[in-house]
Records
---
Amino acid sequence: MRVDGRTHAKNHRVARGETVTVAEGKPPEQRAPEFEVVLEDEHLLVVDKPAGLVTHPAPGHHDLTLADAVEGLIVHRLDRDTSGLLLIAKSEAVREALQSELKRREVRREYLALVGGHPEAETGTIDAPLGRDRHNRTLMSTRTDKPRDAVTHFEVLERLPRTALLRVWLETGRTHQIRAHLAAIDHPVCGDPAYGGRECGRRLGLRRQFLHAKKLMFRHPVTGEMEVCESKPPVDLRRALDVATREPVSGGPDGD
């Protein structure tokens, strides 16, 4: 800080009539986001997004996003704390073709989710319209004034002492769809504080929701070939799953 052209200590008391000059600091350099490229050609690429990386710029978020780091147009989204496969087009024509596949429900997106408690059935479909929650606009729920069709399918892969590992696949792609739908059937995703999974996540040492986009299947819009990409769960989820297998059985009726 300079006062009337001279440098002063930070605790200098400015008097009436003095002119204060503050030099702008150099903004800190931002590290480029790190992610793995699973598939790439001249038309598109599939990346394996780590948890914590935001897909698109948003108000209040100042760090670099995935969209900043890739030369392409993101076809669909993943929540910040959801890891896994994401499809990116290298031209507007390819993005439009892939989004048309999504609308026709010809793109298969499979996820791994660890949820609290045990679903009664081995497989199920949650067909419940979603929209902004009437009382909390940051959440999506079935308690909404503007519902949009939303369909989620699941299969129980493993029943653990107090949790269940699910394979989940989407028929529609609403914001927070898997998290909101699983919460709606009283089996929230572990580690998801927004939708009721805080306690389950705390027990397992999770710092984010146990949700991973593990498989992506789509027809290449240019070559016509069926592309199948897969991703293994990252280390933090594998550790939590190991803890979940060793949990003591709860005395509660739903395993929580």
---
Amino acid sequence: MVQPKYHVFVCGSSRINGTQMGTCFQKKSVGLVQKFMQEIEERDISSDCLVTNTGCFGICDKGPIAVVYPEGVWYGNLDEAKIEEICEKHLEGGVPVEEYKI
């Protein structure tokens, strides 16, 4: 069983029928899932991090959203630059990025 150090959940605005629609999807959250995966791979921390595309978290005005466990840190209004910093400081360095928390 895989037991990563971090599990990152990224809102993909998926509905129960599988349709992707909503704020996070409109703001390119699917590409942000890929950005997390790319950054994790490039930083060679893929054995420590798992990324999962999720359904709606229900706070669309803060989207795109990601949640990092085990701490349960919620990040909002994400873009590629913020993801790079989250990967560097939180996933590599172990320190959540306070200014992006929601």
---
Amino acid sequence: MNLLILVFIFVFSFSCFFFGKSQIKKIAAVNNFKTKALPHFYGFYLSLWCALPAILIVFLWTVFEPFIVKYLIISGLEQSSLADIDHDRLNLVYQKIKALYFGTYSGAASEQIQLGAKQYGSFLSMAQNAKIVLVFTAVIGFTLVAYKKITNNTHAREGVESIFKVVLILCSVVAVLTTAGIIFSLLIESIKFFSQINFFDFLFGLDWSPQKAFVRDTSIVLTASEKQELSNAFGAVPLFAGTGFIALIAMSVAVPIGLFSAIYLAEYAGSNLRKFGKPVIEVLAGIPTVVYGFFAALTVGPFIKSIGDTLGLDVSSESALAAGLVMGVMIIPFVSSLSDDVINAVPQSLREGSYALGATKSETIKQVVLPAALPGIIGSILLAVSRAIGETMIVVMAAGLAANLTINPLDSTTTITTQIVMILVGDQEFTSAKTQAAFALGLTLFVVTLILNFIALSVVNKYREKYD
């Protein structure tokens, strides 16, 4: 139903644009006056006033309708023979009523649930009819008001710009509130986690065994030794080390290949090769990470193990080297594409001045182009580092799940994101330290990424050079 209403709104507002545009021309010709804005602004003015209020009504109605219907149904249940049961049971009955109405309820339904399903259907029907009437009334009413304003030769351009300004402000507010909500949710759960686990034990502990919390959480009273054992089970140093180690291997692949390919495409390659080469490199960024994970697990990992066996080395079937190499290939476009753009942004006059002083092409690149493009190149590298730290699927499929504290690239290891996934898989009890550990890891990852962004910004500001 919402889709049909939105289609009607967009079709009607689209028609209003052409109607308003043509109507203002006719009115100006009949009354012999000059419009205060171009004709298409009047079309936009009429179209926006037709669509935006109606879309806002649909959005608010869709958000609040389930809560209102639920309140009405539960209020009816509380006044019936179910008045003596608690609120959680009433919620369960309400879910059964919904399931019966939508045809997903299995088993015999009681008379109370059948009656509730009929009431639920009547409330939904009433709400849908009221929404349609309200939307149609808003569309017609606001369209007539806007039409009256354009016939009075109002300042349509200022009105349109004001509307777009409000829309842009709302979009900015949504983005800020989303970020604040993410931070707030991470902080709340992390505080609960650190109320059970010592912060320094988490930050500097060497043993990561969150599954122990399942056994210990069932105890009503924990002894001192049990509390210490539980605290020691959440040492995140192996996760930090594994994340950094795999990211280091990935950057060892991505930075040289990405930077050198960017220099070649920007400075040496012909136009035809550049048109073909740059899109091909950027295709790597469009491949799903799960595909890279399959490639690492089925091809790269066994290949490294076979080479290691040939050389007499002990190589794990899931290794940090396999995950790091494939991850490095995945983030090559982040370094290559962005570095290519900043190198091309260096003014040609700098190159010509270097050539005029007798420098060769390679000397010009080393002494002039790269220093000028250094802030952008460092920014692209730090962006790639953030991408490597946050990668999950490749590590899950190619590096293993064991939290090993090792610097041997042939051993299996794991990362922060992998453990977050493993902790939150399946049904979880969010009062458990094991589940809350995922939020503590998420907060840690957020802080690390934020620090990298600050470093990138400070480096860019420090080395930025302005050219005439």
---
Amino acid sequence: MPKLAEKPMPADVLELFRRPNPAVMATVAKDGRPVTVATWYLLEDDGRLLLGLDASRARLRHLTGDGRVSLTALAEGDWYTHVSVQGRVVEVADDEGLAGIDRISRHYTGRDYSNRTSPRVLVRVELDTWHGWGGASQD
């Protein structure tokens, strides 16, 4: 079970967070504004969050300028139950052969990622803290 800086996720919360849930990530723009966007994610076995981003998007510029990120995953069919994590970018790398986005896409759709022309990058996020609500409570 991945251990976060403050506390480990209980097994039921971890199970929910490992599912291909709808999610929203927040970044910090250069001028300090918070910016949110829907995204896919994958929790890797080492407890890091894997994000596959289009190399031309503003959120990549946000993350390379200020590596703080937050992501909220909503339980499918029950948006009241959610897990939110906060962390920081520890790695940004080109997604060679789209292997990373294919892993994430298969997690969500069962198929490789359809857009084979746009350059992509992989972002790994070390999680510092988490909290849950509804059926994903930390209590």
